[in-house]
Description:
The protein is α+β, with helices and mostly antiparallel strands. The chain has 13 helices and 27 strands. The strands form eight sheets. Strands 12, 15, 20, 22, 25 and 27 form a six-stranded antiparallel sheet that branches. The protein has a five-stranded parallel sheet with strand order 3-2-1-4-5, sandwiched between helices. The longest helix is centred in the middle third of the chain and has 21 residues, at 239-259. It is globular and about 60 Å long. The structure holds adenosine monophosphate and glycine.
Amino acid sequence: MKILVVGGGGREHAIIKKIKENPTVEKIYALPGNGGIAEDAECVAIGAKEIDKIVDFAVSNQIDYAVVAPDDPLVLGAVDKLNEAGIACFGPRANAAIIEGSKIFSKNLMKKYGIPTAKYEVFTTMDEALEYLKDAPIPTVIKADGLALGKGVVIAMTRDEAYDAVRSMMADKVFGESGSRIVIEEFLSGPEVSVLSFTDGKTVVPMISSMDHKRALDGDKGLNTGGMGTIAPNPYYTDEIAEICMRDIFLPTINAMNAEGRTFKGCLYFGLMITKDGPKVIEYNCRFGDPETQVVLPLLDGDLLSIMQACTNGTLAETAVSFKDKSACCVIMASDGYPGKYAGGFEITREADLDAEVYIAGAKIVDGKLVNAGGRVLGVVAIGDTLKEAIDASYANVKKVHFENAFYRKDIGKRAMEVFNEK
Ligand code: AMP
Ligand code: GLY
């Protein structure tokens, strides 16, 4: 089979490495891929948002199956256009990808179908939002409606911060049109859990749970990033919580999307917070999370491509999906300065006795050498029998990957390990 994967980050590298395990796969193209992905797939210089070019490429190269991994092309309708051209795809159509593409859509969906989430109000004018904030409980959370590269959420700890956030989104348009409509919602607290799931629109199969670390610095300080590391499984996600989530969140969401005529097929990501009142949805993503995928897929037992095809074909109920009884930890090595300005062009080297997967996110090949070319450069992923073993093994291997300017958090998994002390 000839496979096409749209995207070019660490998540796509992990997807490609897992798909490659299927013996029927003869060729994988990555659009655009990156310098590290080039070790595992043929990279083609077509951007993830260049949908017409992607479709032309898929048709002229007789692609058998396409995986659209990032949010932007999904929300823009890449799957619809590929399907129209006769290409089978993994990923939701645009009318279902809206579950991530519009926070107002997803909040209204949850309210309509009684799915637990933070209380909220929607605003389309700045004056009304500022007026509401005069008496709103603080802290409060301000969210741009549309996609904003994962940065459209402000947790305002003071009233002034809340006013500033509204002004910067609605007047200064720091997120462009994404911020012309906003959600202001109740601040929730509790440990966060990411649950990625496979769904064919009828059956929903949660993958092993995970925990992201979004802030740039140790102790969850510093700016929000695309994710500085992950662990799986997430020890806060007990069997009891998993059961509640399936009953009150996962199945109701799939059913709600069907009832709205927006059947979701692909990977539906539930960003959850375990509050004292039970699990609540913080956000939905219409795709695999990054860097959650880098810890989830290495623990998947069995064949990713067949599971993906079962999601497309509506046969997920008859397809076995299981995960190894082990733990994984991903430590992201970034370019110092990220998520602000950083320097690129430094050679990335790996010592010969490296004993971990390295998924490349932001790197390119210059004069035959792999050099950093992004904020998040790569993820070092190790597996262990216990979470502690996985964390220790990841950090031992981080020391065997080198580039000038490398920066990483030293405490990935620390919050998760605390659960064992709390018990
Ligand atoms: P999102 O981009 O929606 O994932 O939000 C980014 C992060 O903001 C989440 O991972 C949470 O840590 C935090 N967050 C979002 N909504 C809330 C909320 N209602 N209460 C507290 N924290 C939140
Ligand atoms: N790790 C969070 C995301 O992929 O949006």
